[in-house]
């Protein structure tokens, strides 16, 4: 009898025979006390009496898989005689129990450098039913496509594996909705929370937010040349400043290599290059090629005669390096 049979259902159990007649013949049936069945006596048109089992309370295979009851037939003699029969009732399974996961919520942490194909964790569900009604198939419930690209669940074992590489800098955690479905279509769900752990797989990146170039050679020490960004979200903004005044006549430009190192183990380093041009300041006076010129001139030289040519140099450039004589 299937356990989902509704109370009130009847089952014929046959007829006891008694060779006597009259009041000494079969008069009724009795069933040993139990929590599920009662016996009712029915009489055919020929006067014979037969028994029917009547289900009074719902069966539960998960509580009792089988029942052994004694049915007694009684005659009307004095003293009465009885006959007995054993009723073996097998309670067959109905899919009246959904799967149940061992945990409603699972939590697991994965390093972002975990190799694809690695096992994330194993979820498991049980079902109190039997046979195909207890056979559970695992899968993902309503889950975003970006999550389905990253993870795979084995339909038979409930083992979740990683399909694609993780990236802490992209996504720091995932929530998976896993369902277990039994052979009768009943479903249970659990959540799997995957935390992605950061590893030092990124070197610092130096971003030049602003650059003041050219820089006047007479700019004082401490002048800000460049504003940088070396942290995520712009939370680290070091400045490049002059340690001392520049000298264009010594170097017209400077090629700088900036390095930023993180605190990882091992540490990673990022670099950036900056070219700073030095803007001339009029900080150099003209210099004559000679400090003194001696010229001998005859008294009869005509007006306009060139007596001597003097030369000067100026280390500055542009207008600052153009010399006028007087």
Topology of this structure?
Elements: E1 10-12, E2 26-31, E3 37-43, E4 49-55, E5 66-75, E6 82-90, E7 100-101, E8 105-111, E9 119-122, E10 125-126, E11 137-140, H1 145-148, E12 151-153, E13 159-162, E14 173-181, E15 187-197, E16 207-211, E17 215-216, E18 224-229, E19 239-241, E20 253-261, E21 269-279, E22 287-288, E23 312-313
Parallel strand pairs: 8-15, 17-21
Antiparallel strand pairs: 1-4, 2-5, 3-4, 5-6, 7-10, 9-13, 11-14, 12-13, 14-15, 16-18, 18-19, 20-21, 22-23
Give a written overview of the molecule:
The protein has 326 residues and is an all-beta fold. It is 1% helix and 39% strand. The protein is built from 1 helix and 23 strands. The strands form 8 sheets. Strands 8-15-14-11 form a 4-stranded mixed sheet, with no helix packed on it. It has a 3-stranded antiparallel sheet with strand order 1-4-3, with no helix packed on it. The protein folds into 4 domains: 9-90, Sandwich (Immunoglobulin-like), CATH 2.60.40.60; 100-197, Cadherins (Immunoglobulin-like, Sandwich); 206-279, Cadherins (Immunoglobulin-like); 284-325, no CATH class. The protein has one helix at 145-148; strands spanning 10-12, 26-31, 37-43, 49-55, 66-75, 82-90, 100-101, 105-111, 119-122, 125-126, 137-140, 151-153, 159-162, 173-181, 187-197, 207-211, 215-216, 224-229, 239-241, 253-261, 269-279, 287-288, 312-313. InterPro entries: Cadherin-like_dom, Cadherin-like_sf, Cadherin_CS, Protocadherin/Cadherin-CA. Its main location: membrane. Keywords: Calcium, Cell adhesion, Cell membrane, Glycoprotein, Membrane, Repeat, Signal, Transmembrane, Transmembrane helix. This is PCDGH protein.
């Amino acid at each position: 009898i299937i356990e989902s049979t509704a109370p009130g259902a009847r089952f014929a159990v046959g007829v006891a025979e008694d060779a006597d007649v009259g009041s000494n013949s079969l008069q009724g049936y009795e069933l040993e006390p139990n929590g599920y069945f009662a016996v009712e006596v029915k009489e055919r048109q020929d006067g014979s009496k037969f028994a029917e089992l009547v289900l009074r309370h719902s069966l539960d295979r998960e509580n009792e898989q089988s029942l052994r009851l004694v049915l007694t037939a009684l005659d009307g003699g004095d003293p009465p005689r009885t006959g007995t029969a054993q009723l073996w009732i097998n309670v067959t399974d109905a899919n009246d129990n959904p799967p149940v996961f061992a945990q409603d919520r699972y939590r697991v942490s994965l390093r972002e450098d975990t190799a694809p194909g690695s096992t994330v964790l194993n979820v498991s569900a049980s079902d109190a039913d039997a046979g195909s009604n207890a056979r559970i198939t695992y899968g993902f419930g309503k889950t975003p496509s970006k999550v389905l690209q990253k993870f795979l669940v084995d339909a038979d074992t409930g083992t979740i594996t990683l399909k694609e590489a993780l990236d802490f800098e992209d996504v720091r955690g995932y929530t998976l909705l896993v369902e277990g479905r039994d052979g009768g279509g009943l479903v249970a769900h659990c959540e799997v929370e995957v935390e992605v752990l950061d590893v030092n797989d990124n070197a610092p990146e130096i971003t030049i937010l602003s650059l003041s170039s050219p820089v006047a050679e007479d700019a004082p020490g401490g002048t800000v040349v460049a504003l940088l960004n070396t942290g995520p979200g712009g939370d680290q903004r070091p400045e490049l400043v002059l340690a001392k005044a520049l000298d264009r006549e010594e170097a017209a430009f400077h090629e700088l290599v900036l390095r930023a190192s993180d605190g990882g183990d091992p540490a990673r380093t990022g670099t950036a290059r900056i070219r700073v041009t030095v803007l001339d300041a009029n900080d150099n006076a003209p210099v004559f090629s000679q400090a003194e010129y001696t010229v001998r001139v005859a008294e009869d030289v005509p007006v306009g005669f060139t007596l001597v040519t003097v030369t000067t140099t100026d280390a500055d450039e542009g207008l600052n390096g153009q010399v006028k004589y007087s």
